[in-house]
Amino acid sequence: MADLSDYTSLRVGGPAKKFVEVSSEKEIIAAIESAGDSPILIMGGGTNILVSDEGFAGTVIRISNNKIEEEVDACSGATLTIGAGENWDEFVKTTISRGFAGLETLSGIPGTVGAAPIQNIGAYGHEVSEFITRVRTYDRQAKSLKTFTNAECEFSYRNSHFKAHPGRYVVLDVAFQLRIGELTTAITYSELASALGISVGEKSSVRDCREKVLELRSRKGMLLSESDHDSWSAGSFFTNPIVGADVAAKLPADAPRWPLPDGRVKTSAAWLIEHSGITKGQSLGGARVSTKHVLALTNSGGAKASEIAALAKLAQEKVLTTFSISLEPEVNLVGLNLQ
């Protein structure tokens, strides 16, 4: 049996009852159908998952298909169809080297292309849903292929139709529409604008933008490094809460607030955690809050999944007690819960 700690960025997790690696669409579907009605766990890079110390009592299917198809038009831009198993940041890097623009602010996000639409990954003012035209999946319930248009994906903040129906759809490939160009759109995120030496609303070169995003992520411990335990994490453990205007009004004056079109307000999970009494470097057994960013929970060496979950629960309870806001995990929990 494969030990799942060998396949996750947190380097924790017990054994899988059955472990299968697949590298083509045919193999993916065959592995799913072979599992029948038993539980399956789809894995790509293992970068957004916390698996229990007991492991997974079903079939783990690790996807590594990385087909690439493209259509490029000088006027309409590039349509790229990418296999679910392709490394996300390698894909982003390739688009920039080819002269395409759009994905630069999403540089450095760990994981695979197939995971991107499920979580609707985003950073520095943009979400992947802005660039996806369709997602092709295998529907386990209907036992057939199903293609979703962008609208049918029902994208929202760190959410999608696929996330709302866990276990039903397995992403096979994703199609992206990117423009041809050397400049970004207007930079709307003040931290990134400052790093680029420009004002909010100005544009940057796509290459410079990618470089600064990678620098910012590295500074926060959000770039995986084999030698740096402070990066042994699953990225941001919690999503930024979206609350009612009345709740936002009760927050301290210096709490970040991003008003949304529907009248609600998004605030910063990291700010809430830090101001609830959780500190950088705080530990619980082998689990540790990153010394660089309180939103990343790390394996300082020899951590158990239960310790990381307990540290996450502590942060959750502190924020709830201090601000009456419930933090929702961004990381997928397998065999664990924070209740």
What does this structure look like?
With 339 residues, the chain is α+β, with helices and mostly antiparallel strands. It folds into 3 domains: 4-63, Uridine Diphospho-n-acetylenolpyruvylglucosamine Reductase, domain 2 (2-Layer Sandwich); 68-217, Uridine Diphospho-n-acetylenolpyruvylglucosamine Reductase, domain 3, CATH 3.30.465.10; 229-334, Uridine Diphospho-n-acetylenolpyruvylglucosamine Reductase, domain 1 (Alpha-Beta Complex), CATH 3.90.78. It is built from 9 helices and 19 strands. Strands 5, 6, 7, 10, 11 and 12 form a 6-stranded antiparallel sheet that branches. A 3-stranded parallel sheet has the order 1-4-2, covered by helices on one side. It has a 3-stranded antiparallel sheet with strand order 13-15-14. The radius of gyration is 20 Å and the shape is globular.
Summarize the structure.
The chain has helices spanning about 25-35, 90-95, 115-120, 160-165, 190-195, 205-220, 245-250, 270-275, 305-325, and strands at about 15-20, 40-45, 50, 55-65, 70-75, 75-85, 100, 120-125, 125, 130-140, 145-150, 170-180, 240-245, 260, 265, 285, 285-290, 295-300, 330-335. With about 350 residues, it is of the alpha+beta class.
Instruction: Outline the low-pLDDT stretches.
Output: none
Main beta sheet? 6 strands, antiparallel
Question: Helix/strand/pairing class, anyone?
Answer: alpha+beta
Number of domains: 3
Distance between the termini: 29 Å
What is the number of helical segments per DSSP (H or I, 4+ residues)?
9
SSE string: EHEEEEEHEHEEEEHEHHEHEEHEEEHE
Radius of gyration: 20 Å
- Specify the helix fraction band: 10-25%
Level-2 CATH architecture of the largest domain: 2-Layer Sandwich
**Oligomerization category of the chains in this entry:** single chain
Quick check: average pLDDT? 94
Query: Could you tell me the strand content as a percent range?
Result: 15-25%
What's the level 1 CATH class of the largest domain?
A: Alpha Beta
**What is the CATH topology descriptor of the largest domain?**
Uridine Diphospho-n-acetylenolpyruvylglucosamine Reductase, domain 3
**What characteristic shape results from the CA principal axes?**
globular
- What's the count of strands? 19
